[in-house]
């Protein structure tokens, strides 16, 4: 910065108009922004900026830590390492057998704008057995911490529930480990655990699938979201919630999009509305009627048309 008074002009009294400073102070205020990063959809950086002299931030795309060892530039998603330059996982998905229509290396069903994969693994799956009993089934990588986070429990209660189901809490669970509804009811007073609607999309989506099946097992054709979700004020505040993720249907992980409006009671029809084909016949909408005085009367689950039979069996059998 350069400051100079170069005026030599004088007024009519021959007095110089020059201005002088005897206490000049210049203060530089740095922007609170220390880093900016822009990404292509699959996570490859195309531009970025970082202020000089600040500590390096390695948590970049989707908040995951970038591993620069051996110049690999892979992202650590916890269960797997992600390669943004090719948009693939570095290893085969251990749950790939449940998604046979996709490559076992695929990331977010090859559509990271529409779908997310927050940790490379699957959530606990709430289920209804053939005898109508409620169970919670562990997937690869689950443990007492993921159980507590998914179902909005404190870690102590989560541990009590797992121990009552004969699951050790100090080690990762095995895929297929089952938490019984009886154990949940013994600790919480209700066999149905609730998921926070502001939580992970996959958790919320599978909870909605569970709500559909659970209400049917009780002989009901409608359910109240308050019986299965917490944080519902977010729906009325925002006017709705949109979710992208995977729902377990007939032992397959199916990519779905869910559009929830500001309505609390959701009523399912015996058959879906006339399927609405969108996006060049690649998606199908399953609509639910809503019992509510407020909000738009739609509760939409959208799945790829290739899963028509799978989703139909799940939602309406």
Note the main attributes of this structure.
single chain, 317 residues, alpha+beta, 3 domains, seven-stranded antiparallel beta sheet, four-stranded antiparallel beta sheet, 6 helices, elongated
Any chance you could write out the topology, listing elements then pairs?
Elements: E1 35-39, E2 45-50, E3 65-67, E4 74-76, E5 81-83, E6 88-89, E7 125-128, E8 134-137, H1 144-150, H2 155-164, E9 178-180, H3 181-188, E10 195-196, H4 201-217, E11 222-224, E12 229-230, H5 233-238, E13 240-249, E14 252-261, E15 265-267, E16 277-278, E17 283-291, E18 299-304, H6 308-316
Parallel strand pairs: 10-12
Antiparallel strand pairs: 1-2, 3-4, 4-5, 5-6, 7-8, 8-9, 11-15, 13-14, 14-18, 15-17, 16-17, 17-18
Helix pairs in contact: 1-2, 2-3
Number of domains: 3
- Total DSSP helices: 6
- Mean pLDDT value: 77
Main beta sheet: strand number and arrangement? 7 strands, antiparallel
Low-confidence stretches: 269-281, 292-297
Helix content: 10-25%
Shape: elongated
Radius of gyration: 27 Å
Q: How far apart are the first and last residues' alpha carbons, in Å? A: 75 Å
User: What percent of residues are in strands?
Assistant: 25-35%
């Amino acid at each position: 910065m350069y400051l100079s008074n170069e005026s030599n002009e004088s007024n009519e009294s021959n007095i110089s108009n020059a201005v002088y400073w005897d206490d000049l102070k210049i203060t530089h205020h740095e922007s609170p922004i220390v880093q900016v990063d822009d990404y292509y959809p699959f996570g490859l950086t195309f531009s970025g900026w970082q202020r000089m002299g600040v500590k390096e931030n390695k948590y970049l795309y989707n908040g995951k830590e970038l591993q620069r060892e051996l110049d690999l530039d892979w992202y650590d998603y916890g269960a797997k390492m992600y390669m943004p330059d090719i948009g693939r996982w570095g290893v085969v998905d251990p749950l790939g057998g449940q998604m046979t229509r996709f490559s076992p290396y695929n990331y977010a069903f090859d559509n990271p704008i529409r779908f997310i994969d927050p940790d490379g693994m699957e959530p606990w799956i709430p289920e209804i057995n053939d005898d109508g009993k409620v169970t919670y089934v562990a997937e690869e990588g689950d443990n007492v911490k993921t159980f507590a986070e998914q179902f909005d429990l404190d870690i102590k209660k989560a541990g009590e529930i797992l121990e009552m189901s004969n699951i050790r809490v100090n080690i990762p669970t095995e895929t297929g480990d089952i938490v019984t509804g009886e154990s949940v009811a013994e600790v919480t007073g209700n066999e149905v655990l609730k998921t926070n609607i502001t939580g992970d999309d996959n958790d919320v989506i599978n909870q909605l699938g569970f709500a559909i099946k659970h209400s049917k097992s009780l002989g009901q054709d409608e359910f109240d979201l308050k019986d299965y979700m917490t944080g519902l004020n977010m729906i009325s505040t925002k006017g709705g919630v949109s979710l992208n993720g995977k729902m377990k249907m007939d032992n397959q992980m199916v990519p779905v999009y869910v559009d929830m409006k500001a309505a609390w009671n959701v009523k399912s029809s015996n058959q879906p509305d006339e399927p609405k084909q969108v996006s060049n016949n690649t998606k199908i909408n399953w609509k639910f009627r809503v019992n509510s005085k407020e909000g738009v009367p739609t509760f939409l689950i959208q799945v790829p048309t290739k899963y028509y039979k799978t989703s139909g069996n799940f939602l309406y059998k």
